[in-house]
Design brief:
By secondary structure, the protein is an alpha/beta fold. About 25% of the residues lie in helices and about 25% in strands. It contains 12 helices and 26 strands. It has helices at about 5, 65-75, 110-120, 185-190, 205-215, 235-240, 340-360, 365-370, 390-395, 415-430, 445-450, 475-485; strands at about 15, 25-30, 45, 55-60, 80-85, 100, 110, 125-130, 135, 145, 150-160, 165, 180-185, 195-200, 220-225, 245-250, 250-260, 265-270, 275-280, 285, 290-295, 325, 405-410, 435-440, 460-465, 465-470. The strands form 7 sheets. Strands 4, 5, 8, 9, 10, 11 and 22 form a 7-stranded mixed beta sheet that branches. A 5-stranded parallel beta sheet has the order 13-20-14-15-16, covered by helices on one side. Strand 15, helix 6 and strand 16 form a beta-alpha-beta unit. Helix 2 runs parallel beside helix 3 (about 110-120) and helix 2 (about 65-75) runs parallel beside helix 7 (about 340-360).
Length: about 500
């Protein structure tokens, strides 16, 4: 097996010819080697990239441990690399507290791990985009990526590191009270449950972590475990003993989440052994019941398993389409550890570099392509004014002729902090047409109560002094612009 085959560039064979004017790779696939939806009818010529704008050697989709590790390696190989960070910059580690199994550190905060990774990757100058991928065309080469903010990128290779998202229960009332007592992020939302009683659903490490993060705030936390024992590691279980306000209830499932039309007031539960139903009065329901790979955008064109995890080839990170690699929780259904994700990201970065090398993308070709490489002019936004009191809010409304947008955030919410500079740019563009304020939800108690904020980020839109809309999620630039255009 030659080195080209070893790096997953084909399923059955290649026809290769190299020249600056027309480096050709003709793909010959076995039947069922790629999904039927992808039609590989084109001859791939490196010269096809010469006239493509916004060109990159490596596009990394995702900014968790896998994505940043891939970017570190790809950019260190002097490959033109872009990192499309997504709405949750830093991934799931941003929503954890202390990590004790990150190599080289006895104990370190999850967000600190990601900040160090980001700083290390940034030393080799990849482009970081606070944007999300809207679509990707796998049928042509270079691969065509379109982002939520309207940017079109032509990528010679792609590394998918989109991670996974928390699962939901699917119980009645869950969707109705999402963001109003039902959430998946204790580190973001715990301050809203001071002296309240809450439940955490789940029995693994994540559930125990959520309970511990809630302990300094909530009066009582009940871990609802569906089985007869916790699945969390012994290290995590042993920590529960230090928190008298955390109790564990086994063989218990939620049948319905109840509320008063505004916020969660309780849950109906059932005992798995006796089938006896009962009711618990609680103000918050924190879900920690596992994760689903964020692969829906790619599942039509890449091979995935029944659970949605992207399939990779052998010991590489190569996906079922040449030039596409996957790393982290979007492909790893076995280990699902940050350290493993980082390692697989490193492998993906090396795989992408070798893919480009095999195509003939050397220093001479890089020079020929350089005039078309993606550059981003960084826009400077305005510093958002802060509101902390109801009186200040009333003053900000003025006569009501200009729409007012309130961004409720906390310093512990990664999505919130990522969105603040984007809001600053939007505020600059719509100066005089809309007023955008930031509201620290841990400080502005009057405004939190007025607008019934129980989850961040939370965007409140006021038009003509009336509540026009609310969004309990992170929004990208295009979504924020569309929101403002709708209310103008």
């Amino acid at each position: 097996m030659n080195h080209i085959q070893r790096y997953g560039l084909l399923a059955c064979g290649f026809l290769v010819g190299a020249a600056l004017s027309g480096y050709v790779v003709k793909r010959h696939y076995c039947v069922n080697s790629v999904p039927e939806q992808v039609q590989w009818s084109q001859v791939v010529r490196v010269q096809n990239a010469l006239d493509k704008p916004n060109l990159v050697d490596v596009a990394v989709i995702g900014s968790g441990p896998a994505g940043l590790s891939a970017a570190l390696y790809a950019s260190r190989f002097a490959r033109k690399t872009v990192v499309i960070e997504g709405k949750n910059r830093g991934g799931q580690l941003m929503e954890t507290s202390y990590v004790e199994n990150w190599p080289g550190f006895e104990k370190i905060l999850g967000p600190e791990v990601m900040e160090k990774l980001h700083e290390q990757a940034a030393r080799f100058h990849p482009l970081f985009l606070a944007d999300t991928v809207e679509s990707i065309d796998f049928s042509a080469w270079p691969l065509v990526i379109k982002t939520n903010d309207g940017l079109t990128i032509h990528a010679l290779s792609v590394i998918i590191a989109t991670g996974s998202s928390p699962k939901k229960l699917g119980a009645p009332g869950e969707q109705e009270y999402w963001g109003r007592g039902v959430t998946t992020c204790a580190i973001c939302d715990a301050p809203f449950y001071k002296d309240e009683e809450v439940v955490v659903v789940g029995g693994g490490d994540s559930a125990v972590e959520e309970a511990i993060q809630l302990a300094p705030y909530a009066k009582k936390i009940t871990l609802l475990v569906r089985g007869t024992a916790l699945r969390a590691s012994q290290v995590m279980q042993s920590r529960l003993a230090g928190y008298p306000n955390i109790v564990v209830r086994y063989n218990t499932s939620i049948k319905q989440i109840l509320g008063d039309g505004v916020h969660v007031t309780g849950v109906d539960i059932v005992d798995a052994k006796t089938q006896e139903p009962s009711h618990m009065r609680v103000s918050g329901v924190f879900l920690a019941i596992g994760h689903t790979p964020n692969s829906a955008l790619f599942a039509r064109d890449l091979q995935v398993d029944d659970a949605g995890y992207i399939k990779i080839a052998g010991r590489s990170q190569a996906a079922s389409v040449p030039g596409v690699f996957a790393a982290g929780d979007v492909e790893d259904y076995v280990y699902r550890q940050a350290g493993v994700a980082a390692g697989n990201g490193i492998k993906a970065g090396i795989d992408a570099d070798r893919f480009l090398t095999a195509l003939g993308i050397d220093a001479r070709m890089e020079e020929a392509l350089s005039k078309n490489y993606l550059t981003i002019a960084q826009k400077s936004g305005k510093e958002l004014p802060k509101l902390e009191t109801l009186a200040a809010y009333e003053t900000a409304l003025g006569d009501g002729s200009v729409p007012v947008i309130l961004d409720f955030y906390t310093d512990t919410c990664p999505s919130c902090l990522q969105m603040l500079p984007i809001l600053g740019v939007v505020a600059q563009e719509y100066d005089g047409k809309a007023k955008i304020f930031k509201v620290d939800a841990e400080v502005a108690d009057e405004l939190v109560k007025k607008f019934l904020v129980y989850r961040v980020p939370c965007i409140i839109v006021i038009k003509n002094k009336e509540l026009a809309a609310r969004y309990n999620e992170a929004l990208g630039k295009k979504e924020l612009v569309d929101l403002i255009e709708q209310v103008l």
